[in-house]
Design a protein that fits this description.
binds zinc ion, 57 residues, 3 helices
């Protein structure tokens, strides 16, 4: 995992997703869907894309 290279925003989003998943039964059940978990992962992916687009400029 190289999250530290992706900028503080992505690291924060990743941490939020991990912390949610650690305490969420739905996220830990394979095959189950969790709207909150998906939202947090989506925010992380957006932060990663943002960091990469800024890197390329
Ligand atoms: Zn969840």
């Amino acid at each position: 995992m190289t999250a530290s290279l992706l900028g503080p925003a992505a690291v924060n989003e990743w941490r939020a997703a991990l912390e949610h998943a650690a305490g969420c039964l739905a996220c830990r059940t394979s095959g189950a869907r969790c709207e909150t978990g998906e939202r947090l992962l989506g925010a992380y992916e957006r932060a990663v894309r943002q960091a990469r687009s800024e890197e390329g400029q």
